[in-house]
Amino acid sequence: MVGGTITVELDLDTILHQRIIDKCMSLYQAGQFSCAALESMKQVELALKEISRTREKKTCEKITGKKRTGGNPSGVKLVETLLESKDGIKLTFPLDDESQKHACTLFKGAFQYYRNYAAHDGSNINKVICIRVMVLASEILDLIGASSISFTEIGGVEGLIDHGIFATESQIIALLSFLSSQVCPYECFEGLFEDLYERGYTDHQFQSVFDLGLIEYKHKIINYSLPGEPVDLDTFGWFELTDLGYMVLKNECDSIV
């Protein structure tokens, strides 16, 4: 306590989204607070655009069998398109039934108040305001389930190969296909990793498809007991392609055919 004021040491790495840490912390540490704040909101916009393009492309191909072409909304319009439409994205951690509506207001306010100001002026964004913007951007990224690494910024499938994460496109397809077919009764993963290693995959490749938001792990509680027996509850898990993972798998398979 200094002069009657309680001081708190804040470890930003524990509360910031990985995208914000990777893209904004160096700017923040260099004292470029307005740039760090603007980049934080740009990362939110990029994540929303990635989700928007993937969802609209998938929906359009399901309905018409054709790839979508057309406008590319940004900022507040992008938020309205994604959160206010009936088929828009759903929050990953809704607090209650009204959260979706209020989140849209929060997102639009963040763009109108912070992003627009940082983009056109930013002179009044100091260290404290910068931290607030980075934390807010992290909250939004978590709420929309943004991947920790941008698939767009890494360069898509070609980028994964250029960065040496995968050797070929077929290797990516095979991993996504394999994982999306796996189930884990009792959340036992030992056999899974043995199969991965036998197929020549590394832990880094396994982690990368999660970090990029191509696949996700889901689970639920199941009663394994038979009628009349004591309750035997345990967790059943499985791997599932995200919308982005589905599009990557489909596009790469189509290109091979």
UniProtKB/TrEMBL annotation:
What InterPro entries has UniProt attached to this entry? CHP02391
- Pfam families, per database record: Hypoth_Ymh (PF09509)
- Using the record's annotation, list all stretches that form the Conserved hypothetical protein CHP02391 domain: 16-138
Record-given protein name: Conserved hypothetical protein CHP02391 domain-containing protein
State the species of origin. Answer: Methanosarcina barkeri CM1
Organism lineage = Archaea, Methanobacteriati, Methanobacteriota, Stenosarchaea group, Methanomicrobia
